Amino acid sequence: MIVRASAVVTMDGPLIKNGAVAIEGNRIVAVGTMPDLAWISEGPVIDLGDCALLPGLINAHCHLDYSMMRHAISPPKSFTAWVRRINALKRSLDSDDYLAAIRRGFAELRKWGTTSVVNIEAFPELMTRLGPSPLRTWWFYEMIDIRHRITTEDVVAGALAFFQNRGGTLDSFGLSPHAPYTASLSLYQLANSCAAEFTMPLTTHVAESREEMAMFRDAAGPLYEFMTDLQRPMTDCGRATPFAQLWENGAIDGRWLLAHMNELTDGDFSLLASIPRGGTPSIVHCPGSHRYFSHTPFQYRRLHDLGVNLCTATDSLASTTSLSLFDELRTLSATEPWLTPEQLLRTVTVNPARALRRREKLGQISPGALADLIAIPVSGSLRAVHEEIVANRQPIPWTMIDGQILP
Description:
The chain has helices at 79-91, 95-111, 153-161, 185-198, 210-218, 222-229, 242-248, 266-274, 287-293, 300-305, 325-335, 341-346, 350-355, 385-390; strands at residues 2-8, 16-24, 27-33, 45-47, 51-55, 57-62, 114-121, 136-143, 171-177, 202-206, 256-260, 282-285, 310-312, 373-377, 398-401, 404-405. 31% of the residues lie in helices and 22% in strands. It is an alpha/beta fold. Strands 1, 2, 3, 4, 5, 14, 15 and 16 form an eight-stranded mixed beta sheet that branches. The chain has two domains: 2-55 and 363-405, Roll (Urease, subunit C, domain 1), CATH 2.30.40.10; 57-355, TIM Barrel (Alpha-Beta Barrel). The longest helix is centred in the N-terminal third of the chain and has 17 residues, at 95-111.
């Protein structure tokens, strides 16, 4: 088929006025103007009218398990207080609640143009009850080893389900040691070994809060005390920052997606600067969640100037109010007004595709890329297309995933 729109935003070159995309199966085979594609005589032509056609958005950090928790936790006085509160809420819910939350989260993501999502899955036992995902989904198995978790047959079966071949679906998998305060260095090393063996992506939370910084750098603070009460070994505290602790011990490397990285010292920036350009981990910033916690201002410009691959994501509805990446981009724009609308869009298209090792396959419209596309009504002025996309506040009227138009 050929899909025509008044503007095609390829994210791989200039805008194309009166643009068209030719699709065969689940792949894009040609991109250009309608006259450019006149040689293609077979298949239907779908005319989207005055719309911008662009790559489906990629949410590089989400917790679909908590999609029932919108407004459930008031902005806390401390990050540790939030951890205590969400743990209490989780104990009051069962598998059916989480399955309903995941379905609700998928629906909201799709409503706002997300076609690929990195989901951190805390409950592997749910996997045996989940069918094929409606969006292109990376299920990252959340790993915690600070205390023993009760292992049931359902949990074991669910854990093994992460490694089963799911050919013919939109599902992929990865590993996510939760954070340096809940996962040991040995668990990070195990994740690295497994990822190398099975070619899996890796992600983790790092340097999310001031309390995490105080725990590792100063061996002090509410999170330090909370972890001590849980009988976590604390011998790794009082030595280095959270990021330095992981990087200098070889627990993470350039393959990783690092969520948050809100609390970074000058020493952390020196460490990042010492890494060859292009070899740093990708960093995922969640502007809505960052605002909810009143974290230290995110040092976006400084990371950008180091050449770090920066992505924008939503985090969970336990710490933000929407799973719309457009909302997140507008929140980011308010704090970083120097970013152009096109630069903003890169953080939810080509940048997360690069982080997931899917460059030239996702996040752009080019021959050979997967046919994951969305359309957004625009006024017709090419100069304002990127601005109109970022400003979008309406549900997405047309979506294609893997070459299939969604009803």
